[in-house]
Write a structure and sequence with these properties.
single chain, 14 strands, 4-stranded mixed β-sheet, 10-stranded mixed β-sheet, alpha/beta, globular, 10 helices, UDP-N-acetylmuramoyl-L-alanine:D-glutamate ligase
Length: 312
Amino acid sequence: MKQNILTVAMNPSIDKTITIEKLNPFGLNRVLDSRADPGGKGINVAKALKNFGVNVTVTGLIAGDQGKLLLNALKKDAISADFLEISGETRTNLKIFDSSVKKTTEINETGFFVSEKVLSCFQQKFAAFLENTGIVVLSGSLPPGVPADFYSGCISAAKAAGVKTLLDADGLALKEGIEAIPYAVKPNLHELEMLQGRKFNFKEEVAEAAANLIRTGIEIVIVSMGADGAVVANREETFKVDSWNICVKSATGSGDSMVAALAYSILNRSSLYDIAKITTAAGSITASKEGTQICTRDEVLQSLEKVTVTSI
């Protein structure tokens, strides 16, 4: 397998995180601290993979002055980026961290509009990347103008080129993408419930839903469940995975870190047991960091023994 990973960020953002003492809806809130970081799921995955020492490039669409700021930030972090620049403006996402309850309220902009011409240009760009890529990570929301079956088309193109795909999306983009049968998929519990049209109250129910996805031809399914850990499955095994107690400072990027750790593990031909450990450790470490800061490989590897893996 080629060792290069491509992450796709069709709707990147500048993520501004502000910390307040206690959220006061409809009233005055004074900021204790603030920071701005390049964001969007595809970029977060690329940041994590860079920290893991993987050859990674992030591509997608970018626009306006905010886009220039984002590109400069990626350059400063030595992350390889090759975006298609379009008209409009890159979105800003606001994260409000309430110190009193240690929870984050997110306010995300929709993003720029993408024309059919722009989409066609990007699809050509994407196809060219596949020649030197081993794994493609498709994650995050799609901006206005991009159809729900966009990820499905990317998966089909990648499979035709012999490239593995990892899908982390929601709603129709997830549903359509799964029908193209990616190599791996990582919904969170809410996304899986929306996909299946039902609520899950027990880990066994989540495991069965994961097994149903495996039966379609998907090789690996990871269902992240926040403080309740994760369910990790392939054709042979299913594990319930639990983290250690952490002080959650920002959940932003936690799932993206899990996806990055999964891609890293696939490159290294890790067992499902090891995948269960490293993905959960990565998500937990990132959740313990402020803003959109991402875990490092050393932090994750040093925390593996804290993760509990149980066969279902």
